[in-house]
């Protein structure tokens, strides 16, 4: 019986130990007892891992670190063991010492991350004090994939150096080792090129007096920034100490609107048709036929190669608007001269020329999955499969080393629930779906898996710019705990079930996120309304608050709320630095769907008829031209409409694009006469009618932002 008791205690201790470590390690054993780190403990390290030792000093206040010294009782040792693989580690804790052995620098660093997770959570706030106790254990671990990445888009939304470093720290905590740095796009150029300084000094800003047209949230305010080469070198060095490789992306030949605004000579040369865009036509594709363009590309790549130590430079290749090449006489002449079959092969030609330049400077190309559709790129090109599982399978079946990152699992700019902010074009999903990703169930065979180079999450930042990017709250909320789940998928050979993973979040991970001041997402409270009272509950022990929408007052929820108007209350929860989305009773979110007829002064596309805007199912209408001042969209109700609120917006549902940028809302109470009730904030407005209305109009006062269409939505009525 005594042996059984001891075994049971050991099993429970192991379970507790196992739950603390994210991502889940490959093997661990609990040996009984503990080791105490005191102010007399020394950190002893091999010369090759000195930077790991310096990293540990940020979290643990060792008074002395020693290189290649004799290890004494009470010391912690960091050492290289060449019998282990590069990223493999063995963490051994006895009552006398801690030893972290790794096959290389990466392995030792990974072992340190595991050790830190065995310590109290306040270690991650960098204010821990000795003594610190660690359970005696042995943990042997190695990653499933050598590429465990996160792509951060700083082109659409500028993120300063200190915040980039913060996310590098958070990646290191999760044993992610590749930062895919999306530095250029239509909306911004974020990297200093000394031979062409205007790329950053002008292209790093949009709106105001910048030639880069405003988009995504800040609109007419001049806003942005860029990294100097020294700042980027600092980021690269900072990441390297944390076992993270920074892979720059210069997105070409499409997604180059910002660059084209500065150097219009890089674009195709043809007469624009401004009939759909009110005289404006903004092109965003490099001309593939201009020899001077490849000289500019070489200037850029030469300097990028000097900044970044990665073997790879990502050169884009996605979403190229090939209609610009079809209109371009120079590109069509190139096509004929080179015997190219189609515009896809024009892209192949462009990428091949760019790859030659990369090779000259000792770099290899990485591209998005569309870039291999021309069929001529060599299989040495690394492919990032974002569009779908099908595209990932196609790339791996052709033998391309492929990074698996389909949007409906790993794009963390997607909404986490239907009522939250974010994109929705790929899917709506939370951390539970991320953790569920399984290669076999997605159709990957052993042959496919041979070409899987790794896994990557991404955050494209079109929406972030509208969420106060000067603060980290929104980005934190979108990433955590989804990025934690991604790390488990990329690292663990045998991952946890959702129930086990969620338990680890609540028991250990959340408290460390608190210490690192991460605004992570909590599960949404459950809210019910019955028998005249609202009740709310959570599954994670968080504190629930409610907001009285009539007064704006916020209070802690302690007991059911008696009311006949449940729609006047919203609920959310907090735990440490974590927060849930706001929610209400079903009655609050119930939307009215009155019969309505929608018309517009702007012709609509036959593929998206005007009746779509009357369906209340997120269907949209696309017009055949941009808006002009005086254009209108009218919603006429079959019967007088009584409601609390109407949101009337133009543009895509998930993103303010294809909008009437400026205008106003007017309503009719009698069906004939209209009165103005609200000016646009951006792209639309929300009104609160005080009496029944018969019709509503959205009226443009300025043109759209050089788009060739307006997107018309259904109204959102409560």
Strand order of the largest sheet: 8-9-14-15-16-17-18-19
Please provide the count of β strands.
Answer: 36
Quick check: average pLDDT?
Answer: 93
Structural class: alpha/beta
Question: What integer value in Å does the Rg equal?
Answer: 28 Å
CATH superfamily of the largest domain: Glycosidases
From the coordinates shown, what is the CATH architecture of the largest domain?
A: Alpha-Beta Barrel
Contiguous low-pLDDT stretches (5 residues minimum) are 1-13
Query: What is the CATH first-level class name of the largest domain?
Result: Alpha Beta
Largest sheet: 8 strands, parallel, barrel
Question: What is the CATH T-level topology of the largest domain?
Answer: TIM Barrel
What's the helix count?
A: 19
Percent strand:
15-25%
Molecular shape = globular
Provide the domain count.
4
Helix content: 25-40%
C-alpha termini separation: 65 Å
